[in-house]
Amino acid sequence: MSQLVGIVLALCLVFQVSAAATLCNGHAELCSRPFNEVTFYSTHASFAQTSPTKPSKPGTQYKSISDQLNDGVRGLHLNIQQGDTATEVVLCYPDCDVNNGGTLQTTLKTVKTWLDANTNDVLTIFLEGVGTDASPAGVIKAFTDTGLDEYALKGKPSSWPTLSSLIADDTRLVVFVEEPSIAAANTQGYFIPYAGNVLKLDGPFKYGAEWTCGPWNRTTESIMLIPHFIVQTATYNGKTYGNMPYPFNLGTTNGYQYEWHAVLCRGGQSIWINFMEVDFYDQGDVKTPTLKLNALPIPNYSVNDYYPTFFDADPDLPDL
After folding, report:
1. Which of 59, 77, 202, 260 is deepest in the core (most CB within 10 A)?
2. b/e for 96-135, b at 16 or more Cβ within 10 A?
3. Chain segment 243-288, per-residue pLDDT in tens
4. DSSP state, 241?
5. Residue 10 belongs to what H/E stretch?
6. From CA 2, how far away is CA 121, in angstroms rounded?
7. How many other CB atoms are there within 10 angstroms of residue 71's CB atom?
8. CA–CA distance from 214 to each of 68, 204, 256, 307 (Å)?
9. d(CA 265, CA 269)
């Protein structure tokens, strides 16, 4: 009997492992899709956390990076600047006087721990800041010291692999770099430059402005990044900033306007919507429209939810 129980338990374990292996970023349907044919929601200045009730400083997110990853965020935007030493790189937005998110290395340790534990997920990091003073050697050191470089896709392929291929090859991290000099400094090739690869659309926007989808000058870019967040002009500690976070009307911004902006840009551009970059991702609902964009099932929805509702002009007549 004990031998039989052991066999049953072993078969159950094999089934669980097999079932897990068929999921890519939580969905079996995504496994066969190339990386550039999947839509992800990503967090603007992911590290710049603040409190929703008693903020001590402005920020762009209410949850930590660990919580973001556990909630389904699969794109992190990290604004890099030079730290206090030659090889220290820090994360700040809009600058270090407003929100200093600590060192790049500390954040990458968090990401490494998460990737170690979530072996069927593909994650993307955007290192942002054109003209940043961050040391290229310091940025590379942060990746190598944390071991995160081991997961990084080496070089932009001629055609993007599927999510299942990235997972099978254990190259589950894609890193895009906005500053060309930092991308060029990485001889291992896992810093993929924005130039020629990422089409970053218009944004951010001021409250009341229309969402737009330019520029209309795509050449070889195969990844579409849409900044979908609102900024405001505000003064903090005596200094005025034009790109301060705008933590208002989030149910609308991260609700139907998120979906509308995505569909608008998909209709105007010739490539897929890959990353919708948002502030305060946990406010409103960015998950449901992202499922729709990926043609994935929506929890608690049935086929009937997709049928249109017609106005009944005469309730006394039988329904057709």
Report:
1. 77
2. eebbbbebbbebbbbbbebbeeeebbbbbbbbbbeebebb
3. 999 999 999 999 999 999 999 999 888 899 999 999 999 999 999 9
4. E
5. helix 2-21
6. 37
7. 13
8. 28, 12, 20, 33
9. 6
Alpha carbon distance 170, 58 (integer Å): 37
CA R_g for the chain? 22
CA distance 160 to 153: 11
Residues contacting residue 102 through CB under 8 Å, at least 6 positions apart: 47, 90, 91
Phi, psi for residue 71 in degrees, rounded to 5: -85, -5
Pairing of strands 230-236, 239-245: antiparallel
159-197 confidence digits (pLDDT tens): 999 999 999 999 999 999 999 999 999 999 999 999 999
In whole angstroms, give the CA distance from residue 182 to residue 32: 32
Q: Are 141 and 87 in contact (CB under 8 A)?
A: yes
261 HSE (CA, 13 A, CB side): 33
The tokens describing 187, both together, are: 């001889």
CA angle 187, 189, 195 (to 5 degrees): 110
In one letter, which amino acid is 257? Q
Among residues 160, 78, 153, 154, the alpha carbon closest in space to that of 111 is found at 78
The predicted model scores a pTM of 0.89
Q: Which long-range contacts (CB under 8 A, 24 or more apart) does 247-251 make?
A: 247/52, 247/279, 247/280, 248/207, 249/207, 250/279, 250/280, 250/283, 250/284, 251/283, 251/284
Mind listing the pLDDT tens digit for each residue in 86-124?
999 999 999 999 999 999 999 999 999 999 999 999 999
